[in-house]
Design goal:
This protein has helices spanning 14-21, 102-107, 208-219; strands at 29-37, 53-59, 62-69, 72-79, 84-91, 94-100, 112-123, 126-135, 141-147, 167-175, 178-189, 204-205. With 220 residues, it is mainly beta. The chain is globular. It starts with 13 loop residues before the first helix and ends with a helix.
């Protein structure tokens, strides 16, 4: 869940796709707040100004997460119904958004081998199962804990764990090039309005290249 869930953001091998596709039919609606843990070895001085928590609002196959970073506020809206991602950014330069379509997402889907583990864990009051994710693009492995009791929302469609049937409660993420761990500290079921997933008034559409340039200028 990168986006990288910026959240985050954030492809699975066929032998396990049937296993993970089995769900309970439920879809979680509500908010999940995650604690962000930065690596002790991180030497980048900007770490002190980065957020320590992130909240994701989820309703069915839609999810929204906000990150306030040094160059501005970033919002990511994942829509698993039409397979699209909105990236909104507010900064001194203005309010802009980029929409990534299903066709664009499918061209750059990350590949990984995902192996179910026997390990379980209680996170934020939820019983979680574990999988090991071995990324095809990097010589690294990571562990993801998820709850299939919460639901099987299709909000991870652009990530390595998109076929895992459950809601992720502990996983790795990447913020401004820094690998971090997100661990749920509260799970609050409740109604989430569809308006949460709409583009607010005052935003202008732009390109990813222009957003990257604005981020670069914002960090200088």
């Amino acid at each position: 869940m990168k986006s990288k869930i910026i959240l985050v953001i954030f492809a699975l091998c066929l032998p396990f796709s049937t296993l993970f596709a089995q769900g309970n039919g439920k879809k979680f609606t509500g908010s999940i707040t995650y604690k962000i843990t930065y690596p002790a070895s991180a030497t980048n001085p900007i770490v002190a100004s980065l957020p320590t928590t992130i909240t994701m609002q989820i309703a069915g196959n839609k999810a929204k997460a906000d990150l306030v970073l040094p160059f501005g506020k970033n919002t990511f809206i994942m829509n698993g119904d039409d397979i699209s991602i909105l990236h909104l950014m507010e900064s001194e330069a203005g309010k802009f958004f980029v929409k990534k379509t299903k066709e664009e997402i499918n061209k750059s889907l990350p590949q990984a081998t995902v192996t179910p583990l026997k390990e379980t864990k209680m996170i934020a009051g939820q019983s979680c199962k574990a999988v090991e994710v071995n990324s095809a693009n990097a010589a690294k492995k990571s562990k993801v804990f998820y709850s299939d009791e919460l639901g099987n929302n299709n909000i991870y469609f652009n990530t390595e764990i998109r076929s895992v049937s459950g809601v992720m409660l502990e996983f790795e993420y990447n913020i401004m090039g820094i690998p971090v761990q997100l661990t749920a500290i509260s799970v609050e079921p409740g109604r989430v309005s569809n308006k949460v997933f709409e583009i607010p008034a005052g935003f202008t559409e732009t390109t990813e290249a222009k957003l990257r340039e604005m981020k670069r200028l914002g960090k200088n």
